[in-house]
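Final report, closing paragraph on structural work. Over the funding period we assembled a curated collection of sequence-structure pairs, and we close with a single example.
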Amino acid sequence: VYEDTDKHIFALAPTKQPAIQFLHKWDNVGLRLTEPGSVKIEIPNREHLDNSVGHAAATTHSSISIQLVFSNFYIRIALGALNFASDYTAKNTRFWPYTPHPVAKGTEEPYILQRYGSFFAYLRAAEALADVAGLKIAAIYNDCSQKRDITAAERGEVAGWVASVKVVATDTALRVTSRVGEVTGARATASKVGLDRFWRRQDAYVA
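Its predicted structure, as stored:
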């Protein structure tokens, strides 16, 4: 919020500069390789800030884009978990021999195939929805970004698409990252495997 006003300012800025200092206080579950947490910002020349604002719908459109970015984070975390788990299953997961119809290897177990198929289908649907929302946002930027004449109705429609993506992406990512252990076996719970890191990262985002 701009000082002494009720106006929000959204900006992109390089973080490798003296004015932006990360205090490195992050001590939470997940996201160990990022720089979240407390940030100290010092702007020496405030007179150079452009605090002009356009139509309310236009000035808040960037926040919708950020929500779509987060949604894609969630989808990619889940895809990473799925790829890692499937590779582990192919190399290490053993089949269950005590059954009337034993298979030759873990990747042929019917319940494992069913689980992976379900995970993949949910993620494919989330990706498709995110792609549609991305096209909606791109169209708004192409048509209205120069004049900043986005209408409230146009912003509302795009916001609805992005909200839908975030709901689906959040649910799907939690579903996949918390359940890949079902298709990798008990040995995959070992700390050296690191399968839990995907869930920890996702949980840190949506907590």
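The mean pLDDT is 82. Residues 3 and 46 are 10 Å apart (CA to CA). We thank the funder for supporting this effort.
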